[in-house]
Amino acid sequence: MRVCGFCNGPGVNQEHVWPDWLRKVILESRAAGGMKHFHAEIERGGETKKFKSPKLEMKVGMPFESCNHGWMSGLENQVKTFMTQMVYRGDKTLLDPERQTHLMRWILKTAMVYEFTSAAAQRKYFSDAERLAFKERFEIPQNLWIWVARYDGVRPMHSVQHRAPKSSDSPPRIYSLTLSANFLTVQVFAFRESEGDLGQVARATKPERLLQLFPASPDWMSWPPPITIDDEALDVLDTRFVKVLGGSVPRRVEI
Ligand SMILES: [Zn+2]
């Protein structure tokens, strides 16, 4: 029997990677702009499937039903109000330290769930112990960065995950995920100690387009950053770690 990826409890379910409330916000915003159907592209097992989707649906086979209605829905409720404002029209949003913490946790939770969209045989970057420690105490894995940006372009939902090196013998040691939900783009980057100080790559990030959400500063933060990224800049963002660290082209999902 399959068990939950966070608490090891029973309960297998097909869940949406993107929570329903967030899909609704994006659909309403795009519908207001006259958009009714979306071209979706999903890569499964090396094969890219294209289809038209009116609902922006993308499901994940990760079994986490027992957690979904508990701490995870708690996280959704903590971010829903201010994230809606960011996602719907990309309006200026003040992030106090509490909001920063909630948003950072929501993004990390989404990344951990996102890893389960690929085949079960593929090794995950985040370990069982890290997922459990996050669920129990919101403990953050080492060597992790999160940024937030504002994007204005044709893609209502977009995601690219990169894990390296790809090997069936050992888990990946480098991880990056870029996610866009309408006007809000987030990026996660993490690496294992054995890889040396890859933090220098993260620390070199310029703040014009990307605000650093984690490691956090004690100050209030005003989102968005000065420069909004367009489609071309989003492509650059997707691959910035791949280019620096080497590796194959990451899986890309456009919805
Ligand atoms: Zn669970």
Description:
The protein is α+β, with helices and mostly antiparallel strands. It has one domain. The chain has seven helices and twelve strands. A six-stranded antiparallel β-sheet has the order 10-6-9-8-7-12, with helices on both faces. Strand 8 and strand 9 form a beta hairpin. Helix 1 packs parallel to helix 3 and helix 3 packs across helix 4. The mean pLDDT is 85. The site of zinc ion (ZN) has 7 residues, from helix 2.
Strand adjacency order, main sheet: 10-6-9-8-7-12
Uncertain runs are none
Structural class: alpha+beta
Number of strands: 12
The rounded Rg comes to 17 Å
The pLDDT mean sits at: 85
* Overall tally of structural domains: 1
How are helices and strands ordered from N to C? EHEEEHHEHHEEEEHEEHE
Distance, first to last CA: 31 Å
**Can you list the ligands bound to this structure?**
zinc ion
Shape: globular
Please, how many helices? 7
Characterize the largest beta sheet: strand count, sense, and whether it forms a barrel: 6 strands, antiparallel
Strand content: 15-25%
Summarize the structure.
The protein is an alpha+beta fold and 255 residues long. 33% of the residues lie in helices and 25% in strands. The chain is built from seven helices and twelve strands.
Give structural attributes.
33% helix, 25% strand, globular, alpha+beta, 7 helices, single chain, two-stranded antiparallel ribbon, 12 strands, binds zinc ion, 255 residues
